[in-house]
Design a protein that fits this description.
single chain, 258 residues, alpha+beta, three-stranded antiparallel sheet, 42% helix, six-stranded antiparallel sheet
């Protein structure tokens, strides 16, 4: 089962693992009381690095929303695993780009923007965007004031906001509203240990597209994993000078033993 999912890079579901010939661990399934299963690949840039299996203890037909949610978690987990194994790849810009591409490719939004808190300037800086020309986001900084934008409000209140029609909603920053011709919009804070690192804003280009409850749940899971990935990248950047210094010292100390 896992081999099929990894080779084809596609999710696969089984209603009853005890009756499906692809599932080989039937004795384990009996022992653990496993019945239905959803298996999804863990991908980085279309490269499969693993597979996640999710089980229920009763017959269950996994929905498209459940499949999309587990795929989002799997892809974010892949980023974390890749970075923990190869510390040199903990590049914050690469992580931000992968996060936004996950929102557009896996969840289906047309555009996504990622804002990070700059405590020194007391602003939210738009660090990266997908589906938007990079020139259009240069210099965008929203005041860290809940009355200034719904993005800042999500940071202060530590909760998501779904805006069905940004044109009519006063919580949406006027400059951002006009610059990107916003329609339906969702904003999710990036939280780690109850601290907000920033927020993700995603929207559809066409009007009258609704953001469903299932979509919101997928984004919230996605944002939680994204927050952890960003936190780990920042931690590594802070530790990198000390790690390099320790490596040089260790190499010098052990040189006589080579």
């Amino acid at each position: 089962m896992v081999g099929h999912v990894a080779l084809r890079n596609q999710p696969m579901a089984i209603l009853n693992v005890l009756k499906d010939p692809l599932y080989k661990e039937k004795e384990l399934a009996k022992k653990e009381g496993l019945v239905s299963m959803l298996s999804v690949p863990m991908c980085i840039k279309d490269r499969v690095i693993g597979v996640i299996n999710c089980y229920t203890s009763y017959p269950h037909l996994f929905s498209k929303g459940e499949e999309e949610m587990l795929t989002t978690v799997a892809n974010q987990a892949a980023i974390c695993i890749e970075n923990s194994g190869l510390m040199g790849t903990l590049d914050i810009d690469e992580i931000l780009r992968l996060i936004l591409e996950g929102l557009t490719k896996n969840i289906g939004f047309d555009r996504a923007r990622l804002y990070l808190v700059n405590e020194k300037r007391n602003v939210l800086e738009c660090k990266m965007a997908v589906g938007i020309d990079e020139e259009r986001i240069k210099g965008i900084a929203l005041r860290l004031d809940p009355e200034d934008s719904v993005v800042a409000r999500s940071i202060f209140e530590k909760q998501p906001f779904v805006i069905p029609d940004a044109r009519k909603d006063p919580r949406v920053n006027l400059m951002i509203k006009e610059k990107f011709n916003l329609h339906s919009l969702v904003v999710i804070p990036l939280l780690v240990k109850d601290k907000a690192l920033g927020a993700i804003a995603a929207d559809f280009v066409e009007p009258n597209k609704n953001i469903t409850k299932e979509t919101l749940e997928s984004i919230m899971v996605f944002a939680q994993q994204a927050g952890l990935a960003i936190h780990n990248a920042f931690m590594y950047q802070e530790l990198k000078p000390s790690v390099s210094k320790w490596k040089r010292k260790f190499k010098k100390t052990t040189a006589g033993f080579e």
